Structures are given as structure tokens and as C-alpha cells.
Amino acid sequence: MCTNSKGCKNTGQDLRIASVLRGKKISLKVDGNQVIAYEGETVHAALTAAGIRRLKDSKSIDSEKPGSRGIFCGMGICYECLVTIDHVQDQRACMTFVEDQMEIITNES
Amino acid sequence: MKVKYHWKAKYHVVIVGSGIGGISAAQTLAGHGLDILLIDENAHPGGQLLRKSETSSRRFFNFKPDMVKTKGFSLIKKVNDACSEIDRIHQAQVLGIFNDRRLLIHTEGNKNQNIPRVKNQNSGQVIEVQAEHLILATGARERYLPFKGWTLPGVMSLGAAQILMKSYGVLPAFHTVIAGSSPLMTVLASEILNNKGKVAAVLDENPFRKKLRFLPLIQHHWPKLLEGAFYTAQMMYCRVPMVNQTRVIEAQGKENLASVIVAKTTLDGHVITGTETKYPAQALTVGYGFVPNIELAVQAGCDVEYHTTGGGWIVTVDKNLESSVNSIYAVGEITGIAGGKKSHIQGKLAAISVLKKFDKLNFKNKRSSLLTQVKQLHFLNHKQAVYAAFLNHLCRLPQVAYSQIPDDTLICRCENITMGTIKKAIEQGFITSGGLKKATRCGMGRCQGRICGTIIFDIITALTKKNPYDIGPSLSRAPVKNVAISSFLNQPI
Questions:
Q1: Closest Cα of chain A to B159: distance in Å?
Q2: B436 with B456, same domain?
């Protein structure tokens, strides 16, 4: 999944580095769509590889424009990558490892 | 469901953080008959520095003249081998430290033991552990300079991009712009190029002149300089545009990042209007140096002090690395940003201080050789200050970079507080970190000021020219990290 047609030479491929040895191929359900992942990856790595960058909308009380958010710190401190995982809300995508048939919902209000 | 628990209620030594400082302490402590617990937020030991994925081939020869990482990976192996003596809790966060070094720890619990996740029940649980001696090795995070649109998905820290590649083998995007003032920029560029990704540009805040001025400071760290030169040559070979004295002024895109607007700056750090350039990219990585993670130490009551050469507020320690609180030690980046080498040395020194307290280092003991190392370690520890001064000065931005942030730019990402709101509150007299927090809610969101705290400190400093001690560090209270109420109810069986 690449939105920029000019920059996407290897069509059909994701952002995974080919030379890296990976775990077992598994399948996630992201917002109802099937997404491929590999054991040992975090949710945020699998979503990035699949081109899914928008993970939530900012929910602050005073905010006029909520604005979409995605991975920022990547190490569990910024809480910008919160998604719903297996019906549990506000899980950090960067700190949770993928499991087969995991259900992920982005931007659940 | 019955879960097997691996931890005890009481330990001789608890180490928080299994980065290079934490594992260095653990490895030194092992073999003396002490009960040791190592707690870490990540699934694997090694912290932020020691991350690597299994690869089969590389585009470029892997050039690593600096031995710190090699040493670090062998330490991980040693700690793994000493598993009978060192208990470990991974994917856990310490929520607070209370009287007599009682730690409240949130753990994912069942996930640790590789037992399949129970749907709807993964909030983990909170446990209590007591430490006779406590070593804090909580590491550092990155420093940022906010700009319009820095909240767009696709804009991330340099570290986030490195984690994606090194731990999970995923490129941050097909085209990545790298910006900031951190030495991590060239490292990241090299990693992207090694893995057949594209670097749209490397944009350095620093004027070339500033970098040259700091060269004498790096004298004893020539491998780092050599590494930098190698990365630069690699970027030139791959025709990556490298621009000095350039600042990101806007990230554009509808829902995701689509392009980055940058502008040249004057030598003293003012943006020069009319010099804007646009780079199309799906990822923009930014980093402006490092901030020590002192939250837990502050919550525990440890004294802190301010040093620009140490990356800001750091934990005060004596020469045995003991903090102002009895039997709480601090090692690594939280005693001053200086990289892995210092963490390695300090981890060892703190461990030796603890071993002395347990009277484990006498001449009958075959590992008494540790005592003879102390002098040398103190010398090496002191020597790291030179590199620390270089690193922290190189990353440091001029004050105008903070005072001239446009009013509509978001500063606190969690609570959506703009520069305009913060400036207004400062004008009204809220000129301490604590006061500004109460006046505007900045730093009160989920990250608890971990992202915006230092930015706000730098904004107050730039606008009021006040002394750091008048502004003060942000306070931390337990729980220092987000935790679900339900996890307090999930008691161990």
C-alpha cells in the first residue's frame, strides 16, 4: 500500500526490509481488513509496513481541530499510537506484539 | 486462569531498566549470591542502544569502530546466561517508589509467560516488590523542536525510525526526510541506505562552523568521528542532499505527511524568510538531542541538578553513584547524557558500591579484582564528560529557536496546547514548570510531559531568561506511567 505512485517503484511490496529474517507469517484484522504480519513484530511495525499511518484522532477536550496522529516516539512514552486491540481500548501499538487473528481498530471513538 | 509468577516479594538489589547501564550493573552483581531483579518496559534486554534484527545480507560493509555495542551485546548474553540468579520482568513499568524502596510495578503478566492472551483481560496487574538497594537506569528520550504539523502521522522521532528498522526490519517510509541536530541523523540515514530505502534529505540545524568548533572536544572519541565520516561518505555516494543551517518549519499533508517545508536559518538561529524549500516525503524523522528520564527518580525524592552539558535536569549522585535518597543509585543517561560507554562504566561502579555494602568484596573472595578496577573506572567515568559536553552542545539549539515558535504551533501534543496559549500564560506570570502546567494543562496528558516538558522549560528560559532553578523541573507523582484501574484489581493468585 503506497499512496505516492511516483515514489513507489516496488509495487505490491510493503516496507519490510527483504534481508531481515522473520517469524511465522500470520494474519491481523485491521479495521475489518486482513493485514499480513510476522511473529515478533509489534503492532506498530506491522501497520507501518502495511502503509497504515493514521492510528487515532486527538481527543482533547478543548481541541477545535482534533487532527490525526500516528507513531511518534516508537518507545512507549508519547501515547500517540493508541489503538483498540482485541476489544481493549487505548493500547500502545508500539509496545504490543502481534498475534495471529488479532483484531485491531484504529481511531475508535 | 492460574499464572506462574517468577518474582519474589523481596530482593537484595532491584535494577530498573535493562539498557546498557542496567545490564552492566546486573552482570557485575551476579555471582555473589544476591537476589537480583531486573525490570524493563521492553520485551528484550538492551534498551534503546542495543537493538538488532537477524539479517541475511547488507548493502554496505558494516563499519563499527566503536566497541560499545559489541560489548553491550556480549553483556546481554552474560545476563541471559545468569538467569538462575537474575530474575527479570519484561514489559513492565515501575509506577512508583515508596518508603523503604517498595516498588509498585505494572506488569503485562500473562503475556510474559508466553501464555496466549485472554481476550478483554490484558490490562495486566500491579505487584509490589521491596528492594534493599535500588539501581535506577531509566535512560533517556529524545528532545524536540515543535513546528506546524509535527503531530501528523509520518512525523516521528529519529529513534522511532531506528526502532522500526533495527528491531522489526521495517523502513519508516519509501522516502524519508531526516532533520534535527542529533548525531543520530547520520546513523539513521546510513541504516536507511543500507536497507535500500531512500533518504530524501538530511537537514542539519547546526552551521558547519559550529560543528568544527567542537572538534577538539571529541579527542578521545575518534572512533565516533570516524563513524560519522564513514556515514557522510556513504550519503555522498548515494547522492543524498545534505544541508546545514536548516530548520523544518512545517509538515504538510491531509491525514498523513505528504511534504516537508524547510527554511535556512541565520548563524544565531533566526529563520530566513524566502528560503523555503519543499521536500515530498511520507516520513519525517526529527531529533534534537536527548533528555534524561528522571521522572521515577524525582518521584522517589532524589535531588536533581541542571547541567546543559548533561542534557538538562539530571539526578544528583555522589562518587559511588548513590543519590540523595539512601540506597537508591542512579546510573547512565539519568546522571547526564553521555552515551553507552558512560552507562556501561556507571552500571559497574554502582554494582561495586552495592557489593561493598553487602560486604561481598573482601580479599578472600575471588572476584575481589573488582575493587582494583574502581580507580580505573572512576577515571574512565570522568573522561566521558568530554564527550558528553561535545554531544550535548552539538545538539543544543539557540534560544531563539524556542522563543520564535509561531503562536499557532502545538506544543503539548496530548492536550493540544498552542505556543500562543503558553506565551499568554507566561506573560501573566506563570513562569515555573509547575505553574505553567496548572495554568494551561500543558504536560498533563497521557505522556505526562515526557514529550513537551523540556520544550516548555526551554520556551520559558528563552522568553524570560530566568535561571533554570527558578523555573524548576516538572514534578512527578505515582503512578509515573499510565495504568488501567482494572490492573490494580487483578491480584496475583
A1: 7
A2: yes
Please tell me the total count of domains within chain A: 1
Test mutation, B41, B144, B164, chain A, max A CBs within 10 A: B164
Tell which phi-psi region holds residue A38, choosing left (phi > 0), alpha (psi between -120 and 50) or beta.
beta
Instruction: With beta carbons under 8 A apart, name residues in chain B contacting A71.
Output: 153, 156, 160, 164
Task: Report residue B120's pLDDT band, with 50, 70 and 90 as the boundaries.
Answer: very low
* Confidence category of residue B230, pLDDT binned at 50, 70, 90: confident
CATH number of the domain at A38, please.
Answer: 3.10.20.440
Whether residue B107 sits in one domain with residue B32? yes
Distance CA A89, CA B244 (A): 43
B170 and A49: CB-CB below 8 Å? yes
Q: B96 CA to chain A: closest CA distance, Å?
A: 16
3-state secondary structure chain A: CCCCCCCCCCCCCCCECCCECCCCEEEEEECCEEEEEECCCEHHHHHHHCCCCCCEECCCCCCCCCCEECCCCCCCCCCCCEEEECCEEEEECCCCECCCCCEEECCCC
> Are A72 and B413 in contact (CB < 8 Å)?
yes
pLDDT at B118 over 60: no
Percent of chain B with pLDDT over 70: 89
Nearest to A75 among B91, B163, B282 (CB): B163
Residues spanned by the domain of B448: 399-471
**At A9, is the pLDDT very low, low, confident or very high (cuts 50, 70, 90)?**
very low
* DSSP per residue, B386-408: HHHHHHHHHHPPPHHHHHT--TT
Contacting residues of B for A86, CB less than 8 Å apart: 117, 119-120, 122
Q: Is residue B230 part of a domain?
A: yes
A-B C-beta contacts closer than 8 Å? 163
Domain check: are B129 and B158 in the same one? Answer: no
Mark yes or no for CB contact A48/B153 under 8 Å.
Answer: no
**What CATH number does residue B342 fall under?**
3.50.50.60
CA gap B30, B322 in Å, rounded: 20
> Which of B416, B418, B444 is the best residue to mutate to test the A interface, defined by the most A CB atoms within 10 Å of its own CB?
B416
Q: pLDDT tens for residues B12-30?
A: 999 999 999 999 999 999 9
Query: Which residues constitute the domain of residue A94?
Result: 25-105
Whether B58 shows a pLDDT value over 60: the answer reads no
Residue B176's identity, in one-letter code, is T
Q: Per-residue pLDDT tens for B377-428? A: 888 888 888 888 888 888 899 999 999 999 999 999 999 999 999 999 999 9
Question: What ipTM, to 2 d.p.?
Answer: 0.89
Structural domain includes residue B345? yes
Chain B interface test: which of A38, A54, A80, A83 (most B C-beta within 10 Å): A80
Range scoring the smallest mean pLDDT among B98-102, B311-315, B488-492: B488-492
Question: Per the domain annotation, does A50 fall within a domain?
Answer: yes
**Cell numbers found for residue B240:** 543524498
**Whether A70 and B152 lie within 8 Å, measured CB to CB:** yes
Q: Please give the average per-residue pLDDT across B46-58, as a whole number.
A: 70
The neighbour count for residue B57, using CB atoms within 10 Å, is: 7
- Which pLDDT belongs to residue A11? 39
From B153's Cα to the closest Cα of chain A, the distance in A is 4
With 90 as the cut, is the pLDDT of residue A99 above it?
yes
Out of B54, B123, B164, whose CB is closest to A21? B54
